[in-house]
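pinging the channel bc i need a second pair of eyes. not urgent but kinda urgent?? the chain im working w is below, pasted from the shared doc
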Amino acid sequence: MTKNDMNGQSDDIKIKDPKKMDDDELLELLNKHVDSWFSFFKDNIIEGRDRKRFAFGDQWDEQVAEEYKNTGKVMLTTNKLNPHVRRLVGEVRAFTPALSVKRTDELRQNDEMPKIIENHIRKVSLNSDAKTAYQTAFRDEIVSGFGVVSACLEFKDENSFEQKIVIQEQTEPERVGFDPSAKDITKSNGDYSFEYQTMSKSEFKNTYGFVPNFDAEPLTFGEKFTFEWINEDNVTLLDFYLKEYFDKTLVLLKNGQSMDLKEYNKMVDFVNDLQEQNPDQINPQIMDEMEIVQKRKVKDYKIMNYKFIKDKILEKKKWPSRFLPHVFIDGDSYFLEGKQYTQPFIKDAIDSQRMLNFVNTEIVQNIKDANNEDYLVTPSNIKGFEKMWKDKKRRKGALIANPDKKTGQMPQKQPPSQINPQLQPMSLKLENDIKSCLGIFQSNEGSSQSDLSGVAELTRITQGNLSTFVYVSNLNKGIEQLGRCVLSLMQNTLQSTQKLEGVDESGEETSDMINQPLPFGGVQNDINDGTFDVAIAASSAFAIQKMQEYREILSYVSAFPQMAQVVPDIAALKLSSDSRYDIASRASETLPLEIKAQDKDNPQAAAQAQKQLQQQQQQQQQMQQMQIQMQQMGAQIKMMAEKKKGDASERTSNANMMNAQTNRMEANQKSTIEAARLQTEQNKAAMDLEKEKLKFASSAMKAV
């Protein structure tokens, strides 16, 4: 097989290579791009600044404020927008969605590389405080109409060449620009992005070794927005990222695989060399599958990073990612006649908020006027006491006056002015108008209405959160795109064999070897082997999600009470608290060992639980054996006790028989003795009778 074994043709794509431009041509191109963006987006920048100032700062127009000051009125600001903004931003911070990484090819679907990359992205996010960056972008999105997040590379420390990936917070999104022709909502498919910063001339000299000295007219876009290149003290530095396109040939192999022709040629060289060394080692079928069946010319690009001032390019380097570092977070834009118009969340409530300030100011002024003591006086009444009457509000005690020279009357006290009864109801109505414009109900504010059922309250929350659906969804798309940029940076900067630090879902630190050569060929955990993509579990209604998950878990455990023992860690992960991982970790300790032993995400804990389970089973077997032995011993003891009890019963029976026989003998003996006694007594009675008879006979004989 040869490198030129290809079929098909296509026309050449001719494009000027920016590398062939000199610095002057390149500066002209870059300046043109900067001007194009500001011309395209200037109205949104101006209105975005005004809206941010209104939401967080002064809500009074300069002209109206001047009129109120001239009349002595106190301007009252009752900012009802800021609490709603803070609540929404707080929800984003509490429920920031996590990025997940998956393979998009069909190779090794069960390998560990996606999880390793995901853990490292999570560590980058934690180290960069990405939650704050997303929170700031969302705040700008709902207040100004657009926000920005970005990624960059920084040296790990001053004495190292090793770089780390950082997610940046953009506190002033109007300082970031994009390609006006970008169609993607994140503007990621544009040809460039940039951001500018203002440096003092002394700081610039310390960094670049010279003080810039050039004349440049500021770029003026309307009355409220001017881009200034240089002034007496400062200079503007631009950090610009530009896609530079080139042609490449894409080939389709017989096995269905597509690749760059250069990569294909490298593979062919490798196979040919291997075949020369070991002719029998290469399967002819593999050679057949490597045949090219189609080719076509396509455009590819690399991203170049230029740092420059108006008249000089200071740095040039390649940006090691397939994606621009800046991500546009759109509010709810619409396009008309080629122009983009951003719409913040608070846009429709601004007029009601302004009117509320007017009404509340009038209420305060009415109360102030009602407390004033007004008098009807003539010049002669206050003659000699003009100063006292002029500052009567500060006067303590009585006001001294004279009778009028003509009428003789003293100053007449006037009744106090009445507060306009329509102002207070109007104020309450305007507060409700603000909530209505924002689509906010009591349930969304965290308070529950007693007259609503659980389902009705959930429906009310759903209605309120639908008003923020677009904004949260656009933020999620931006986070997803930034994740792709971070992933691409990882693949292009992590080339060597090294330990890649990460953080898993439970918050535990991880460490995995990547790009590690294997003894018999191949690379383990090759970060560039295959293709990956990132995604998030987007939810536009954080309050809905929280309530639904709570109700689902509660209903399930209520239906199956026995499951309460096996779901505490899962339920803990659904909490909104930042401590949910700690709670889940502690809850997992209470799980039955049978559940712990099946934990595929934590093999070490599963092995330990399996060991404990085996020990527990052995202990149970020993307990069962001991129980059987105890039962047997108990049976023997019972038999012995029964036998002993039987012997004792027999002895008792014999003793009773002997006692009965003795009693019978004693009774017989007593009966015999009694009978003898009776017989003796009878014999004695008979003898006494005979004696009496003899005595009577003898007496009778004597009488004769």
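so Residues 120 and 408 are 94 Å apart (CA to CA). and The two ends are 189 Å apart (CA to CA). — does that match what u expected or am i reading it wrong
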